[in-house]
Amino acid sequence: MKGKVRIVKTTSENPDFVNLISALDKSLWERYPELKSDYWGNNILEINPHVVILYLEKKAVGCGCFKKYDKNTIEIKRMFVSPDVRGMGLAQTILLELEAWASNLGYSFSVLETLYKQKEAIALYQKTGYAIVENYEPYVGLENSICMRKPI
């Protein structure tokens, strides 16, 4: 990995997070224009105290967050790495940081949802121990969704 990497725990109100999420949404709608109506309501940016931003040198290049899914489980949300720095292991660094944070807060499991065209994301999640499971709410019946789960 080239350059100095720094991970910052923050909230969803962080301007760097807001900018990264804007880039994420733009990339998703370009890749999946036909799904915007099905998924738009699931991409509302809620106030979230569990956000990680990854900086390369001093530039925010990746992010992710989690929210409580149930008393033992968190849901990974809004994972994104800027296209110009992909392939450097940054997404895995973000994911592991989120899982460690959730584990330290007493959670035992992590779930997440991604879309079927996100081949790199699916491979990353499987490589880090996630298994594909039946779609959970609110993704039940959405055939484009791939839901995954792992113990943390």
Q: What would you note in describing this structure?
A:
The structure is a single chain. The protein is an alpha+beta fold and 152 residues long. Helix content is 30%, strand content 33%. It has four helices and seven strands. The protein has helices at residues 15-31, 36-39, 90-104, 119-127; strands at residues 5-10, 51-56, 59-70, 73-81, 109-115, 131-133, 145-151. Strand 4 (73-81), helix 3 (90-104) and strand 5 (109-115) form a beta-alpha-beta unit. The chain starts with a strand and ends with a strand. The model has no long low-confidence stretch (mean pLDDT 91).
Break the fold down into its secondary structure elements and pairings.
Blueprint: E1 5-10, H1 15-31, H2 36-39, E2 51-56, E3 59-70, E4 73-81, H3 90-104, E5 109-115, H4 119-127, E6 131-133, E7 145-151
Parallel strand pairs: 4-5
Antiparallel strand pairs: 1-2, 2-3, 3-4, 5-7, 6-7
